[in-house]
Write a structure and sequence with these properties.
The protein is an alpha+beta fold. Helix content is 20%, strand content 30%. The longest helix is centred in the N-terminal third of the chain and has 38 residues.
Length: 437
Amino acid sequence: MQMAHSLLDRLSRAVKRLSARIESLEYENVVLRDHLERSGFLRKESLSAHVHRERFAAARRAHPGACEATLADVVQNRVLAGTIAACAGVPEAVFVALRTPAACPVEPEPRPPEARALGQPPEGEGQGAQEVKQPPVKPSDEGLAMIYIFGGNDDAKTLNSCERYNPITNVWDPLPPIKQARSAAAAAVLLGQIYVCGGNHCGQTLSHVEAFDPRREAWQPVSPLLRSRSAAGAAELSGMLFVCGGWSGKQALASCERFNPSTGTWELVAQMAHRREWPTVTVDNGHLYLCGGQDGSEDVSVVELYDPKTQAWETLAMALQCRRNAAVLVVNGQLYLCGGHGHDGRHVLNSVERFDPNLGAWEAVCPMQTHRRNAMAAMVAGRIYICGGRGSRGNHNHGGGHALRTAERFDPNTGTWEVVSPMASRRYRAAAVALPM
């Protein structure tokens, strides 16, 4: 009896020690999660979703088995329907009506866009499946495109390497290198080819232009710009390639030129009202819009519009302040600012803001998972892809960090970021273009 009491006493003390240890670990876990969330390295929603997925996967491993039943099969089973109805407090008659094919035919589940893009037949077709007449599926993969990245800087040199991202396979593929290594180049698509214009190499501002043919995967030289410039903006408008603003090596530029593919020559167009480097250029309703950028010392908040009919620039009655070294993109008429530098010019950010021109207001959206500046941005199928850039220094979000190869994408519909495959090379200040498949 005495031995039993002694054993129970030892077990009781062991349980108390374990309880105290568990309580201590729970407290440390709360503190650690709070610190990571405040530092921007962790989001509560992402962690909860990941924990849920891991628990579900563990349950499936512990209880393996296959289940071929669908929701339609469940609804068609009267016993199961009655049980569900009883638990849910819904009259069984409702479920009986739902399971009647004439009352509510179950439509086939739409195929994922990746399958449609690859030309895969619906599941079961050509494999002895029951003949079921399916309604035509409207293609929802409009806007699918490849992301092309050209040049940039790593932590040691200016790059001439190039790569391409396929959002269907989530794979980066190497491309033939560009002839002239460059960073801070402007790039845009014209007649199915990607033009990479100007840029900087070892402190020298460039006028070189090269065109990449994605079908042949080959480069060809193009007539040089009329003026050397880096950090310019580029866009296609009315069958012409416009390159606007930038940095001459001494000052920000207000000049703008356009390339005519029919003649293979460049010509100057009207000057912008404001000098600016790193402008954001977008096209809407047959007009060219410029916003953001810097004039060499100050941020430019004025928005300008170019009308190809009048061949003149117009200053719009709205101000749009963009922070420096952010990745900027226009999606569905809204402007997104991703990362960049804080107002003090030292801290690298992961914050993301969205500007709605109809409301004339900014709003904060879910931050990126990585602090980055001078990153590359592209839009594919309504989603924002942010690639590379320059990160934080050490464990702090100060400037001067290393070049990144990580990439992530944002879905405006769900308001969430997710990591995608990293690039093959670390790089920042590269040219980025999305080209439809």
